[in-house]
Specification:
10% of the residues lie in helices and 29% in strands. It has 2 helices and 9 strands, in the order ααβββββββββ. β5 and β6 form a beta hairpin. Bound molecules: zinc ion.
Amino acid sequence: MSSEADTSVPAPRIQLSPQEWRSKLNPEEYAVLREAATERPFTGEYTDTRTEGVYVCRACGAELFRSTEKFDSHCGWPSFFDPAASDAVILRSDDSLGMHRVEVLCANCHSHLGHVFEGEGYHTPTDKRYCINSIALRLHPSGSAAE
Ligand SMILES: [Zn+2]
């Protein structure tokens, strides 16, 4: 289960101690964002959301995904086929739970967001599914702010 630290990943711009994160986040948010827990499927507030807007990191506020990249995967979690910007997220291999998966982290603060799966046959431009915990995101609906 142990793996070498991935030295190719640059240090996060936002670095807080566990105590500082705990004061910013509620216990459920902390468990997912900082301890890589997964919320139960079909329970997250954004699973079926179609509201137009931008999804930001709930830990640091960085823009991660847009509603135009969200699609209906029926997997129980909000799913996106691409991040808003290619450098918004970092991918890291995750061999926990006896599976090989690719973990998705916020590039800005290295909080855990979810996992990305590829080649599942979804009819999206990338055939990728960024399977993201609702609790790791916050939606800023478009139209509410002048742009
Ligand atoms: Zn973040």
